[in-house]
């Protein structure tokens, strides 16, 4: 039986990278799979945060996800801290994962910044909590963006090691989860720096297109996006060594449902003075229905809280027995 799990942090506004790299797949998969989508607030406190803002961002992210097409009647949508399994299984898996495995994680190296001694321990063990998120539902498929590939490999290693050590006769306690990295754009880059990925937690609001931005804001951000002074090339080879140009062409292709070659056939030879407004218009047109729905949903806190509570109850009903099995498997007495 196939089960999909994926998570997203309530660390800021849902952006075009999240959408094209992950959410488009989530929306598609709710029709064909048993899907669990989680707002990972436990992950969000691994970096310094403001408690009041976290609560607000959790609700707003729920609204933005529903506005983008997640249907709480077709998938389970909830916030991580409401289901006890995540933190409890993470502890068990921390004792399965090896320090050497975590030391290789590049996201920790990027997010800790210059001050390794000052980073939280939670930021270091973050990928183990992510493994618990997935394995605690015995999920088989995990649709994510390119940046999560390494964490998914770690989750597979943890599943394999747990199965070897505690899996019993057939060694199949946890299914080894398959990453699915296949959105229309699996790695959308920052509008301020073509070599850094677009992120919710980037301090510059101009670095990303939020799914909730209005048409004017979208246009302004694309017009201000960093680019080089050359016109667009006629073919894809001409994008090499031009990360900002490549990123804008990728975004255009993903939004238009076409490929880079087709975009360059249309715009090759033209300068950014004409390409950027065309891109801004296309994005505004594609995102407008989402941002309208978002504004309506966001105002209704009661409904959002109810949706998350119902989702948490459904998630817990799946996770609690798996956690119990895992506790028995490692030798804990029944409480
Ligand atoms: P943060 O900066 O707080 O880490 P984020 O923008 O990286 O936020 P996450 O909540 O960490 O977002 O990730 C949610 C999903 O979006 C994941 O599946 C991740 O792979 C995907 N994703 C994030 N950024 C991008 C991007 N720039 N391009 C494509 N997919 C992305
Ligand atoms: Mg991230």
Automatic annotation (TrEMBL):
It is found in: Cytoplasm. Transmembrane segments: none annotated. It holds the Pfam family tRNA-synt_1b. One of its GO terms (molecular function) is tryptophan-tRNA ligase activity. Its main location: cytoplasm. A motif ('HIGH' region) lies at residues 10-18. It comes from the Bacteria. L-tryptophan binds at residue 133. Its EC number is 6.1.1.2. Keywords: Aminoacyl-tRNA synthetase, ATP-binding, Cytoplasm, Ligase, Nucleotide-binding, Protein biosynthesis. ATP binds at residues 9-11, 17-18, 145-147, 188, 197-201. CDD domains: TrpRS_core. It catalyses: tRNA(Trp) + L-tryptophan + ATP = L-tryptophyl-tRNA(Trp) + AMP + diphosphate + H(+). Coiled coil: none annotated. A motif ('KMSKS' region) lies at residues 197-201. InterPro entries: aa-tRNA-synth_I_CS, aa-tRNA-synth_Ic, Rossmann-like_a/b/a_fold, Trp-tRNA-ligase, Trp-tRNA-ligase_bac-type, Trp-tRNA_synthetase. Catalyzes the attachment of tryptophan to tRNA(Trp). PANTHER family: TRYPTOPHAN--TRNA LIGASE, MITOCHONDRIAL. Belongs to the class-I aminoacyl-tRNA synthetase family. Homodimer. This is Tryptophan--tRNA ligase. The lineage of its organism: Bacteria, Pseudomonadati, Pseudomonadota, Alphaproteobacteria, Sphingomonadales.
């Amino acid at each position: 039986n196939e089960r999909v799990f994926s998570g997203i942090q309530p660390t800021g506004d849902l952006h075009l990278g999240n959408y094209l790299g992950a959410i488009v797949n989530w929306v598609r998969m709710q029709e064909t799979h048993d899907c669990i989508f989680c707002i990972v607030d436990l992950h969000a406190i691994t970096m310094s945060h403001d408690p009041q803002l976290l609560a607000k961002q959790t609700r707003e992210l729920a609204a933005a996800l529903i506005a983008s097409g997640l249907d709480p009647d077709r998938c389970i949508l909830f916030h991580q801290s409401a289901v006890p399994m995540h933190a409890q299984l993470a502890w068990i898996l921390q004792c399965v994962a090896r320090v050497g495995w975590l030391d290789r994680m590049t996201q920790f190296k990027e997010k800790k910044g210059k001050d390794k001694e000052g980073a939280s321990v939670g930021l270091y063990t973050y990928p183990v909590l992510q493994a618990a998120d997935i394995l605690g539902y015995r999920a088989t498929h995990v649709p994510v963006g390119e940046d999560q590939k390494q964490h998914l490999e770690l989750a597979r290693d943890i599943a394999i090691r747990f199965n070897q050590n505690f899996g019993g006769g057939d060694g199949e306690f946890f299914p080894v989860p398959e990453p699915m990295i296949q959105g229309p754009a699996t790695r959308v880059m920052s509008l301020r720096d073509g070599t850094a990925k677009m992120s919710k937690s980037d301090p510059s609001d101009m670095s990303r297109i939020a799914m909730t931005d209005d048409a004017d804001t979208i246009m302004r951000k694309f017009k201000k996006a960093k680019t080089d002074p050359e016109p667009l090339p006629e073919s894809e080879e001409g994008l090499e060594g031009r990360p900002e140009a490549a990123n804008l062409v990728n975004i255009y292709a993903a939004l238009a449902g076409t490929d880079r070659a087709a975009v360059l056939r249309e715009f090759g030879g033209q300068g950014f003075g004409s390409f950027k407004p065309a891109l801004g218009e296309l994005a505004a047109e594609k995102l407008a229905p989402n941002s309208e729905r978002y504004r309506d949903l966001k105002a209704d806190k009661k409904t959002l809280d109810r949706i998350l509570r119902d989702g948490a109850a459904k998630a817990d009903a799946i996770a609690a027995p798996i956690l119990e099995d895992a506790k028995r498997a490692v030798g804990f007495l029944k409480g």
